[in-house]
Amino acid sequence: MAAARDLSFDPWDPAFLADPRPAYAELRARGRVHFYEPTGQWLVPHHADVSSLLRDRRLGRAYRHRFTHEDFGRTPPPPEQEPFHTLNDHGMLDLEPPDHTRIRRLVSKAFTPRTVERLAPYVETLAGDLVDGLVRAGGGDLLTDVAEPLPVAVIAEMLGIPEPDRAPLRPWSAAICGMYELNPTPEAAALAVRASAEFSQYLRELIAARRRAPGEDLISGLIAAHDEGDRLTEQEMVSTAVLLLNAGHEATVNATVNGWWALFRNPEQLAALRADHSLVPSAVEELMRYDTPLQLFERWVLDEIEIDGQTIPRGAEVALLFGSANHDPAVFADPARLDLARRDNPHISFSAGIHYCIGAPLARLELAASLRTLLERAPALRPTAEPERKPNFVIRGLKGLSVEAA
């Protein structure tokens, strides 16, 4: 094990954010686990370890189902952050069995493969409308003109959020997701708390309206979902809806712009894709691997584990480096090469184990629709400026991507 302070891993360094792959390679070369003092986390960079630990029940997204904060050696969150933690802590992503099992089972009754299939025509039509608008304008910002509005509208449509109410959804989501970065600032925390309170209040009112007049939307489905007497509480419905919006579009938005920027920087691969649109499904998987939108996923150590002779005690936190795992040469041949025809591609961009992304089929549908539509209707799409990367590490994306579509 090497102390990470001796390495080039620095999630606040603009050079690292521009391209973390050299630092990841150094981490992998120097060991399987590294303690990173600035965040108090154990960094895990290898694909085999990340994949295994995602399935290891000695680790968890939460610990309150077994320990108090004090028993676990952790400080409770400050009281002023209660709206964020109440919202966050009742979602599937931050629950462990038995609550996770119950909620995921109930949500799966409403969020079925048929739900995704029913959305396919809407996704295709919306992608076409957005790309046509970009083409008519001769270009624009691929992020704000196509990448953002598509998944936000799709999730809102699925949840049954009326169109006039959708404007705050993206700002609320962005503010809440600010808390998932490493060591968030007090300002970021305050924005997340405010967004959590506002979004929660809006959804409580929407849930009340759907109780009075159910529809064909997912909110109505969550209200109706039951199994052996179990039902979702109102807070669980609120937290589930927010999770579906946040997780359901953040990855898709960033995968879209990260992916197109990767294509523009690999013109031979873009040319191959333009010549053969049947590559779209494998291209979606490769673009998710190549510039992973979620770089890190955290787990609490509930029971002591050992990695490569290093004991990691109960109460510690491990940082599973998805971005590094997706570039591990032990798993991916020539991982630094963008290969849209890559067949052996066990990337872990959608996680694994019980927390595998429930919205992965919808994300794949959206990514394929926008990619195919842009290839068909904007065949000469090209960048007009070097994009600026967001100053975030965990959720990796661009501030924008200016393109010409003439």
Protein described:
The structure is a single chain. The protein has a five-stranded mixed beta sheet with strand order 1-2-10-7-3. A three-stranded antiparallel beta sheet has the order 4-12-11. It has a two-stranded antiparallel sheet with strand order 5-6. It is α+β, with helices and mostly antiparallel strands and 406 residues long. α5 packs across α11 and α14 packs across α16. The N and C termini lie far apart (53 Å). A hairpin with a 2-residue loop joins β8 and β9. It contains 16 helices and twelve strands. It has one domain: Orthogonal Bundle (Cytochrome p450), CATH 1.10.630. The protein is globular, with a radius of gyration of 21 Å.
Descriptive key words:
9% strand; single chain; 406 residues; Cytochrome p450; 3-stranded antiparallel β-sheet; alpha+beta
SSE arrangement:
Elements: H1 14-18, H2 21-30, E1 34-36, E2 41-44, H3 47-54, E3 59-60, H4 82-89, H5 99-110, H6 113-136, E4 139-141, H7 142-147, H8 149-159, H9 169-177, H10 186-212, H11 218-224, E5 226-227, E6 230-231, H12 234-264, H13 267-275, H14 280-290, E7 296-301, E8 305-307, E9 310-312, E10 317-321, H15 322-325, H16 360-377, E11 382-383, E12 402-404
Parallel strand pairs: 2-10
Antiparallel strand pairs: 1-2, 3-7, 4-12, 5-6, 7-10, 8-9, 11-12
